[in-house]
Design goal:
The chain is built from 10 helices and 8 strands. The chain has about 400 residues and is of the alpha+beta class. It has 3 domains: about 110 residues, no CATH class; about 140 residues, SH3 type barrels, CATH 2.30.30; about 80 residues, 2-Layer Sandwich (Alpha-Beta Plaits), CATH 3.30.70. The strands form 2 sheets. It has a 5-stranded antiparallel sheet. α3 packs antiparallel against α4, α4 packs antiparallel against α7 and α9 packs across α10. It is elongated and about 125 Å long. The termini are far apart.
Length: about 400
């Protein structure tokens, strides 16, 4: 074989091999540094910065070294151009990856500084909602821009883009109609981030379901239903439809427990008992404790026990406790106050005063004035011919 071939192969192999070796060493060092920084990321700022940068750099730096080696190696020009294009596109994607990680790191820092597991978390929930939504939108825009720039480096795709620009009006109209749900949800996400009709951990009623806002993504919201189901709702739905938000300005709520009691119920003692029940329950926030008669029918009174609590979860438990303990109090001290069905016995008439209803003789039941008993065989009824 021609010695010149081996000489050329060696001239190509040596720089590429050295670049690969240096790249592997740098990659191993950066990944090791990233793992060590991960152990201190919760307490040290520098460790978090290293963790964000190290992993994309562990991929980008070997590509950079390999690009230098390819430029110095005596490869055919076509090969050099294609390899450099592939390595450059890989480096661009690594930069996109790094930008996404930086945005995610800033998001995590803001979330750590505003925890929601505190008593008064209204401000924290507002900040977390804005941060999460804006972070998702920013990361999506970065990924879209990076992939678009990488694809535009291909001459064929760039030519297609130039051709499409000639008919941008029609293409834009079609694309706008096709992408209306996507862009609608993105715009709704911006509206929710700025105006905040909902926030993370808000208590909401959506389509008749009680739940909490568990996640707000760039296109949908996850509502955790009380029975641990998950309701996934598009962001645009919250802009276009009415819904209940129980924690919009504060988590404090009023709740009722209704009882149907007898007319003889001593309301003064019911109010005193309700006050004692509320004061002995730590879920009561000390604001409202009222017992009122809100309705009455022919047999019972409707009594409303109105109480208040710090949040909806405590309020539901407090309402149940008030209802149970009030029934126990009435059973123990005022059993006559519980509703009863009264049935009055029929008065028996003396023998000589009985009507013809007794036995086989039956009196005709009373009729309304002007009413007529229509008989189909009655010859005097209009429309019926008399018998011959």
């Amino acid at each position: 074989m021609d010695p010149g071939f081996w000489h050329q192969a060696g001239a190509i192999a040596w720089p590429i091999s050295i670049a690969l070796l240096i790249g592997l060493v740098v990659q191993w060092s950066l990944l090791t540094l990233s793992r060590r920084a991960d152990a201190h990321a919760a307490t040290r700022m520098r460790a978090r910065i290293v963790k964000v940068i190290a992993t994309p750099a562990a991929v980008a730096l070997p590509l950079f070294f390999l690009s230098i080696a390819v430029r110095t190696a005596p490869l055919p020009e076509l090969w050099t151009v294609r390899i450099q294009h592939a390595l450059g596109m890989g480096g661009l994607l690594c930069l996109t990856w790094l930008a996404v990680r930086v945005v995610g790191s800033v998001e995590q820092r803001i979330l750590r500084e505003h925890p929601v597991d505190v008593a008064d978390n209204l401000v924290a929930r507002r900040v977390q909602t804005q941060t999460r939504v804006l972070s998702r939108i920013t990361q999506g825009a970065i990924i879209l821009a990076g992939v678009s720039i990488a694809l535009m480096t291909f001459p064929a795709i760039r030519q297609i883009g130039t051709t499409l620009l000639a008919s941008a009006g029609i293409i834009g109209l079609v694309a706008g109609i096709a992408a209306k749900p996507v862009f609608g949800n993105l715009i709704a996400g911006l509206q929710i981030a700025l105006t905040q009709p909902i926030r993370l951990d808000d208590v909401v009623i959506v389509q008749g379901e009680w739940g909490r806002i568990e996640e707000i993504d760039s296109t949908y919201v996850v509502v955790r239903i009380w029975d641990e189901r998950r309701l996934v709702v598009p962001l645009q739905w919250f802009i276009e439809n009415p819904f209940e938000n129980w924690t919009r300005t504060t988590s404090q709520l009023l709740g009722t427990a209704f009882l149907w009691l007898d007319y003889r119920t001593p309301m003064a003692e019911v109010r005193e008992a309700l006050q004692r029940i509320c004061e002995s329950d730590e879920r009561w926030d000390g604001r409202v404790c009222v017992a009122q008669v809100t309705d009455a029918d022919q047999s019972t009174l409707q009594v409303r026990l109105l109480v208040s609590s710090r949040n909806s979860g405590d309020l539901f438990d407090l309402r149940c406790a008030v209802r149970e303990r009030m029934i126990e109090f009435l059973n123990a001290h005022h059993p006559y106050a519980l509703p009863r069905l009264r049935v009055a016995p029929a008065r028996v008439l003396p023998e000589e005063g009985r009507t013809a209803y007794a036995g086989d003789q039956r009196a005709s039941p009373p009729t309304s004035p002007g009413a007529e008993d229509v008989n189909e065989a009655d010859p005097t009824r209009p429309g019926v011919a008399p018998p011959a």
